[in-house]
Amino acid sequence: MIINSLLTLLRQQNRFHVGELKQQLKLSIDQWELLLSSLNSLNIAYTVTGSKIVFNHQHQFLEPKIINSNLQLSNKNTISEFVYIPVISSTSDYLKNGKRHTAICIAEMQLNGRGRRGAEWISPFATNIYLSIKLPIIRHENIGIFALGVGVSIKTALNRLKVNNILLKWPNDIYLENKKLGGIIIDLETDKELWWVVIGIGLNVNMEHDSYQNIDQPWSSLKESGFILDRNIIIAYLIDEVMNGVQQFEKYHDEAILRNWNEHDFLKDKTIKIVIDNREEIGLACGIGKGGALLLQQNNRIMPYTSGHIELLQ
Question: Please, which of 24, 59, 70, 86 could form a disulfide with 108 given CB 3.0 to 4.6 Å?
Fold first, then answer.
């Protein structure tokens, strides 16, 4: 992408001669106009005076070197590829289409970020965290517990940063102050020799409600909740805790995962509706059971559900 070539240059300087910049990026007149339009959509301010262009953006870009320097050595040595692409279609899709090795992909913005059930994930530029982690997995048949373990790991990472009151909403949401702070998407694939998991994590860091009033559910960000944190440090902590958590999962620490989840279960004791295909089930959420199933009390019976879309009724 041309925009990524420009963003790479912006990390070094913010003043350019228009003709030299066009030549450096090998742009036609039409491509130049398209690039300026892209900058407007990313909220990167610029002024053109004569033959000069000055970029006045206030964004703090991610710094892979800072992230790497804050990783635990054992995890750093395990990572074969660490990719930073400023504007990307999807960090998870990039890793799914890449080599079969342990890898990290981060971005400033996703053009086709997705949540659960194919929902769009809002991805403003240089504002939040868009992170994907690719790892080999042995216990792939226990992916329900695995996904809950990732949620617990994210909670642990945020707790290390003094962000408390984190709750976990089955099956893949992170909540702060009863509002959605982030989400997880898990993709499994195999090369016939090994199974691989790609963990996609989206976390609201610096979003503000004034700019995003059209989101159709209550949401929060770390900034709006009073936490001013460096995205680089958050990412380092997330990578460490997720990789450490995967190791614990592979050692069959399922009971610890379930206990930790149930202690911070957003849905527990709430009346909910779970939609499965065209069927709806209503009941009282009673925690998470064996295999990571949601437990629902219905007519004095406890029923387990392993999939479905959740709606709160109270």
Answer: 86
Distance CA 306, CA 294 (A): 6
CB atoms within 10 A of CB 251: 10
pLDDT of residue 208: 86
Asked, as a colleague might, if the bond just before 304 is cis with ω within 30 of 0, I would say: no
Query: Given this model, what pLDDT does residue 35 score?
Result: 93
Task: Name the pTM for this structure.
Answer: 0.93
Residue carrying the six token digits 């050692």: 251
Residues 48 and 165 grouped into a single domain: no
Angle among Cα 185, 259, 223 to the nearest 5 degrees reads: 50
- Both 88 and 127 in one domain: the answer is yes
Residues forming a β-bridge with 197? 135, 188
Same domain for 81 and 211? yes
Shared domain check, 307 and 164 = no
